[in-house]
Amino acid sequence: MDEMGIVSRKDIVYHRRQCPFDFIRGFVYRLLPVRMIMKRLNDLEYLKLNKLQVLLYNLKLFFCAILPQFFKNIGLSILNFFKNCGLWVKNEVVDIVTTFTKGNWAVKLSFLFFGFGNFYYGQILRGILFLVFEIIFIGYMLIPSGGLYWLAKSNFLQTGKTVGTIQGRFEYNELYDTDVWVQGDDSVKVMLYALLTIIFIIAFIYTWRLQVKQCRICMDITAKGKKVKSGKDDMKSLLDDQFHKTLLSLPLFGIMAFTVLPIIYMVLVAFTSYDAAHDGYSNLFSWVGLEHFNELMDFGKGGLGLAFGEILSWTLMWAFFATFTNYFLGMFVAIMINKKGIKIKKFWRTVLVMTIAIPQFVSLLYVAKLFDSAGIIGKLLGQVPFVSEYLTSNNFISLWDSPIVAKVLVIIINIWVGIPYIMLMATGILMNIPQDLYESSRIDGASAWQQYSKITLPYMMFVMGPYLLTSFVGNLNNFNVIYLLTTGNPLNTDIGTAGGVSVGHTDLLITWLYKMTLNSPESKYYLASLIGILVFVVVAVLSLIVYNVMPSTRNEEDYG
Fold it and tell me: In order of start, what are the domains of the chain with their CATH numbers?
């Protein structure tokens, strides 16, 4: 394909061999004119195609050229990542060896004593900070209840070993003449401190490399007859050209402490037997390796793999419909209210906004009861002939007992919940679309649909693209709507019990995770951690793909 996006005969013949969808390929080749397939299509020839031919032509390009190239680029990116990591390690090793062999005695001593080279070259403040960090690290690691103690207690990632070495137990106490609980190790605490110790070790290695590199730089600067930065210069730099680092240091620490650390801890839980029976306090939990990940390969009835696949497919379907139905219907409501000739616009906006003020906890529980067999809407719909026949023939008591109806209802009710938010955002965006565009299009004879598809929708999609992405991710984890309306029911008898809990037709991954932890006597935290990892992977992959293709991030200047 050339720079203009035109496909040559050579490209088509090559991709014809590579295309895995032979039926699509053959269908496209039969419908498109042969002369246009066998030679390069210019803009004029492309415009001569009818709508069906354009659609098939674009489908062929997508499946036979764009999609294979996409996966090829992913593979190359992964290979380049590992290649760059290898080159980085090689360059670092070479630089460390070169620094030690060619460095002076001060630089060589800095390999053992942090900041020694900085002291030698007059950087007293840096030298003090590096030396204090080394003293703190050594002291923390060697004290009786320090880093080495927690690492030894944790048996870190040793399959079959417990997290902690001393089991709590009851022992007879002569003073009280009864058994008294003697506290042992707490696995949760041990694993947390061991993880913090490992992070501290990584920080120590990074700091060691940093101060050695700085000593080498100071040596090179001095050899050229230049003056190195003093402590006063460093302070000025932190408040001037490096001020962004000063401002970001506290937020970065907060992200590491409250986001990254919990994620790593959650990942580690998936490799343990942490549950209600092994709570880490009364009974130590242990490392189990990849045992729980192997459970994902069980696709039989009651198997974790089957349940995960079923729930994931419904979760993605729910997120898609919940996102785009709210988006387009909310936009439609905003367009109608914003349309010229509509009276009392403030009233209609106020009515919709007032629904936001009602807590979802109350409104969703109330709506769930309305559609129940004893609810007003449920009773009225139950008197409709084909609805009552459907419920009776399937032995359903209420609409919520039907898997299909329950899924449709949660999507419809979510529309009622979400439209006001979209309406408010869309109203603000619609007011900022230049009216000259609409006036020019009307002069050119554009219909209302053409104005919407060529002006309104592209503008809205460009501005609200990031919101759609975050809304889709939010709906993947939308606990409130599903759990308050259906609690995941009706039960899915084809799957049975997976993860120690029953699986429902409307369960999302997040509600299933909740059931197997807080709503189950077994409280399988390790499975919840495993599901959390998989949810993270799914959300991360989808978010990265969509973020990189959306026009809002690729063509930021288009609507400036």
Answer: 9-94 (no CATH), 105-289 (no CATH), 295-554 (1.10.3720.10)
